[in-house]
Specification:
heterodimer, A: mainly alpha, Rna Polymerase Sigma Factor, Chain: A, Arc Repressor Mutant, subunit A, 2 domains, elongated, B: alpha+beta, OB fold (Dihydrolipoamide Acetyltransferase, E2P), 5-stranded mixed barrel, 5 strands, rod-shaped
Chain lengths: ~200, ~260
């Protein structure tokens, strides 16, 4: 099936955009490679947002189907990664709304309080610690902060791509990541203190 | 289920639906038509907003509804009758539609949506103002299908009829016109529709800007009709109505300036 491309190795060497172009014009069976390339990343991202494996699987499957149906609308001059992440993001949001799950801010913490008080706490963390914090505390953040944080720290996306995925200005991406980090720092510190004192007692 | 199996399962499920024909790729033309319709929709929404803003500005200029508020409670009904509620409402709907359609474009998040909306608002207001200043409404009002929208004075065809949402320059308890003759406690005015009305007043009539009317002044009066041609005023005031007569249109635009009291 892939003999004209040099077999599976040939297909693996194609960029996402070239692959998508071939799926649209030559062989729809090549979509299998698209799914193969993105399913892990998209499953991870969907799970960060939804926190439920089964629902995340449904969301990603639905996203792949929608992406296939609308594949000819994809502009090959843009990044395919942003495009498909956008679809998964929308599907995840729809799923969350359907199940009416929105994680509120922790207890009495407000963004304003944290923004003023927690800069020192944030500066004490290095990148690895931040990544660990993001991974473990993401479900305690509102979606408005958890999405850009997950994309930046856990998926390694640059601001420009996050802007395309979430359809917000680049400046807003920076602001939300910054505020999200401050919130995380406070949540993390409180949870560390809570663990410390519960161990002691 | 182990992770590797879950992966194969997802790929299998997706490809199965494709093989069975349960999902089909939309053809390219589908998206081309979609883009075209989006563009046409946006252009249409912006154009209709401009048109109705222009119409609202025309109505505000020719009727000066805020002038009626000088007469207190007597001026409320003519104010509501002459204020361009419907054009403004339609313009607001058109503007909201344009803003919603604008969201579908990349520029709406790359350049900041609020800035774009403010820019769009400035565009429709400026274009509406320019259209009105250039005499667009006076010219368009001559076209029969649009005649009713632009009211009597600028519509001369046989299909003349009352506009569906507002009366022209006279109502149940108000009238506006240009002074033709000045008498003792009465003036004869001509509405832009060409109707001559004698407005009479007495010592109880509210005259916020005095009673020194001169020929050529444009006045608004509230009160009641004595008969078809006589209006007993409870309040009369100089109005800032800036309609352009047909003669003005032929000779060139001549804006009416309200005399200072």
């Amino acid at each position: 099936m892939y003999y004209h491309l040099g077999g599976m190795e040939g297909v693996a060497n194609l960029t996402d955009e070239e692959l998508v172009h071939l799926v649209c014009t030559k062989d729809q069976e090549l979509y299998r490679e698209v799914v193969h390339r993105y399913q892990d990343k998209l499953m991870r991202y969907a799970t960060y947002l939804i926190r439920d494996d089964a629902r995340a699987t449904d969301v990603v499957q639905e996203a792949f189907i929608k992406a296939f149906i609308n594949l000819r609308s994809f502009n090959p001059k843009k990044k395919f990664s942003s495009w498909i992440y956008r679809i998964v993001h929308n599907e995840a949001i729809n799923n969350i709304k359907k199940h009416k799950r929105e994680m509120p801010l922790e207890g009495d913490i407000s963004v304003e309080q944290v923004a003023v008080g927690s800069l020192d706490e944030e500066e004490g963390f290095d990148k690895r610690q931040l990544k660990k914090m993001v991974a473990s505390c993401l479900d305690r953040l509102p979606l408005i902060y958890s999405s850009p944080l997950a994309l930046f720290y856990l998926e390694g996306k640059p601001y420009e791509e996050i802007s395309d995925v979430l359809r917000i200005p680049i400046g807003t991406v920076g602001t939300r990541i910054s505020r999200g980090k401050r919130l995380l720092a406070t949540i993390w510190t409180r949870s560390e203190f809570a663990s410390y004192y519960s161990l002691r007692s | 289920m182990p992770k590797a199996e879950k992966k194969r399962d997802l790929t299998k499920k997706v490809m199965e639906q494709i093989h069975k024909g349960q999902v089909k790729m939309h053809p390219h033309i589908y998206f081309v038509i979609g883009s075209l319709l989006l563009g046409i929709g946006l252009a249409g929404a912006v154009a209709s907003t401009i048109l109705f803003i222009n119409l609202a500005l025309f109505r505000l200029r020719t009727h000066a509804p805020f002038g009626f508020l000088r007469f207190g409670e007597f001026g409320l009904r003519p104010f509501f009758a002459t204020f361009p509620w419907l054009p403004l409402f339609v313009a607001a709907i058109g503007f909201a539609g344009a803003a919603i359609l604008l969201r579908h474009y990349e520029i709406s998040y790359k350049k900041g949506f609020v800035g774009l909306v403010v820019g769009l608002l400035a565009l429709v207001l400026t274009t509406g103002l320019l259209l009105d200043s250039a005499g667009f409404n006076e010219r368009v009002g001559q076209f029969r299908p649009l005649g009713p929208l632009y009211q009597g004075p600028f519509y001369q065809g046989p299909f003349h009829r009352e506009p569906f949402y507002q009366e022209p320059f006279a109502g149940e308890d108000w009238v506006a016109g240009e002074v033709l003759k000045v008498g003792d406690k009465e003036i004869v005015v001509s509405t832009p529709a060409g109707k001559e009305v004698t407005i009479v007043w007495d010592k109880t009539t509210r005259l916020p800007l005095g009673s020194n009317f001169a020929v050529g002044d444009r006045v608004q009066a509230v009160g009641q009709w004595q008969d078809e041609d006589t209006f007993v005023a409870k309040g009369i005031g100089l109005g800032d109505m800036r309609w352009r007569t047909l003669d003005d249109r032929v000779r060139g635009i001549r804006d009416y300036k309200m005399p200072k009291p």
